[in-house]
């Protein structure tokens, strides 16, 4: 086993701050997948997800001293940076690429989190599994931003409520509340409720207070 493999993320970051380039490379390879998946599922764009992932690690490299391990894991800290970068990119572009392209996320898990979300929303499942997975992805993309991010973090990335709250900079109760409302919107969207688009637009206009 390589000596770097036994190092925690925090140790690798300390070595990076001391000028060890190999430690940063190892840290990047270890954590880039979770950052990429979050950005991909938030935006629907592989190219945007790649750009955000690169920017997140450049920010970490420039400002590594800002990380406080007492506030959570390094991966959670990176997710918070990724979330801020995604908000900046999405606010600038206001254009999403569809998820029809094949998912090529680096470090992709063997288990498909999108399929897990289908099971939670509809325990009966379906023979048309691939079509349902695509429907869920599109439904998640159609959620108001502050609902989309809790679904991506808690449902697809299986992050705890506490870690999600730290990544989003809000209270655990807020995460729970938004996730509950997001699930309700997803169910309506997947059932073909024609009024859900109007409700989503109203929530977007209302912003994070909803």
Molecular structure report:
The protein is an all-alpha fold. It has two domains: 7-108, RNA polymerase sigma factor, region 2, helix turn helix motif (Rna Polymerase Sigma Factor, Chain: A, Orthogonal Bundle), CATH 1.10.1740.10; 111-210, Winged helix-like DNA-binding domain superfamily/Winged helix DNA-binding domain (Arc Repressor Mutant, subunit A). Helix content is 67%, strand content 0%. It contains ten helices and no strands. The protein has helices spanning 9-17, 21-43, 46-62, 74-93, 113-121, 129-141, 145-156, 161-168, 172-190, 196-206. Helix 3 packs across helix 4 and helix 4 (74-93) crosses helix 8 (161-168). The longest helix is centred in the first third of the chain and has 23 residues, at 21-43. The radius of gyration is 18 Å and the shape is elongated. The protein starts with 8 loop residues before the first helix and ends with a helix.
